[in-house]
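Figure-free illustration: sequence to structure, shown twice.
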Amino acid sequence: MTSTHWHDKARELAIDGRAFIDGQRTWSRTEQVFDNLSPVDGRKLGAVARCGAEDVDAAVAAARAAFEDGRWANLAPAKRKRILVKFSELMLKNREELALLETLDMGKPIKYSLAVDVAGAANCIRWYGEAIDKVYGEIAPTPSDSLALITREPVGVVGAIVPWNYPMLMASWKIGPALASGNSVVLKPSEKSPLTALRLADLALEAGIPPGVFNVLPGYGNEAGSALALHMDVDCIAFTGSTRVGKQIVQMAGQSNLKRAWTELGGKSANIVCADCPDLDAAVAASVGSIFFNQGESCNAPSRLFVEESIRERFIERALALVPGFTPGDPLDENTVMGAIVDDVQLKTVMGYIQQGKAAGARLVAGGERVRSDSGGYYVAPTIFDGVDSSMAIAREEIFGPVLSVLSFTDLAEAVKQANGTPYGLHAAVWTSDLSKAIRTSRALRAGTVHVNQYDNDDITVPFGGYKQSGNGRDKSLHAFDKYTELKTTWIQI
């Protein structure tokens, strides 16, 4: 399909910014709205309900009523599976609309909205639907005069707060296992990208998920998000976003009803390339492609590149040759591989870090400027700094933009020490032909995922999450059920 096709569809697209509570589209109780602006060209997409505490109360009440009367939780797992599979099929049936909403709302290239976000989100919903009637309980090895059953039960009402960088995918990682387990859900998408979450609610209802089971509240974090995290009738809060806000979410959970709080937070992932790397071109392609994918707006992006000094110049030369291929373009053109930064606030943040890098003495070897400003959107050229020191802000703080910091090393142990020397521990990688070195290094790296001789391979069957201030708990895989279920022991005396 051509960019003309997508631009035509964008002009025809009807935007519904109303919240979704108890199976109905509705404006906020206060009738407040906010403008939803597209980072593609700065245009207003529409007005969106600015939900607050009153709306949270209504959504939580609907979710609680749905949970208590068992309209979803008491369905046989096989029936919940059939509905979730249909939900997934409806997502794929409406893939073009969902992809277009995602691109217009967040700025990512349409080719990735289709191939990654819609496809991945639909697969996630289907996978958890398929999994739920295959999860068994246990019988404990108690003495012969007793029988102890260990079963999983839904936790109740789940509040989910998701970020703007992968709005549909992050939502699916939460609602997939939460709904499959029998919970009711109140989802708060980011105010920067709420549209696909709202559309998913319509499709969930069409698939057969009963009213009240899945509710969506757009709004600001300090209003709707805080009210959800503080609510006394929410049993679990699942959050993906910045470490700063994650700390606030955990505090709110403690201040209220001590609800379970699961966080997937920031990252400053280290990518270590040794001189005995088995395929230097593959390492270069993965290093460059992963940091510039999604405009660098990925918590697991390998933003710190440690290259052994003896191959550093060759590595940078080959990396620079790939940079032009990531020149930002029209996100509605299927040839575009790097789109727009999500909004002007994030644009200023990224450009501020670039200025800090220059001021600190790092050598700018690519990019470093805003581009396509005549479009009205927010675009940053793919940027690489060489000669970076671990003390610099660009090497310590999460930028969330297309900025790569290159650090060199001669001692692998020192590189690992510097790699671990941040508050984060989400992803890391090592490239080497030495199997023993790979195993020792992967064990030494304090991260939830360590890649060896690749970066960013992914599958719904493997858990996603981090160490340290990158959060707790895990999204994806069967381990995600741990977040949304209670373990119950039923002890029977014989």
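We now fold a second protein in the same way, so the two outputs can be compared directly.
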Amino acid sequence: MIDKRHIGHTLPNFTVEVETGRLRFFAKATGQTDPVYCDEDKARAAGHPSLPVPPTFLFCLEMESPNPTAMRELLNIDIGRVLHAEQHFSYQAMAHAGDRLRFEPRIADIYDKKNGALEFVVRETRVTNQHGQQVADLRTLTVIRNT
């Protein structure tokens, strides 16, 4: 069983620069047809200072952590037992190419179901920009199978 004393544990914070090329690649890979996500002139015409960050891209940037396995290592979770259960996004402001985003992840909850056969870890991440403005709150639910 995962030790619940880790609830509230803050994982290492990190900062990532949002790169134009990666935004264009993500838009293409996800089949985005709105030109505002890949054409800077169209983005500016729509009122953006640069290409906007698509909604789910923040989770890609979260993987830029210096150690993306830090939570699994801390909790001693076997990757072979992990299931990705859900993602949730709560946005407060737009992010754009050229922004420097700070990610502040923490373990928000740990619980189990089915008499411990399934354990759940909730990670919440606060994202702010280079001006200290909150951009979003990310929430990820990971399931660990113990059977």
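Summary for the second example: The domain at 4-145 is CATH 3.10.129.10 (Thiol Ester Dehydrase; Chain A).
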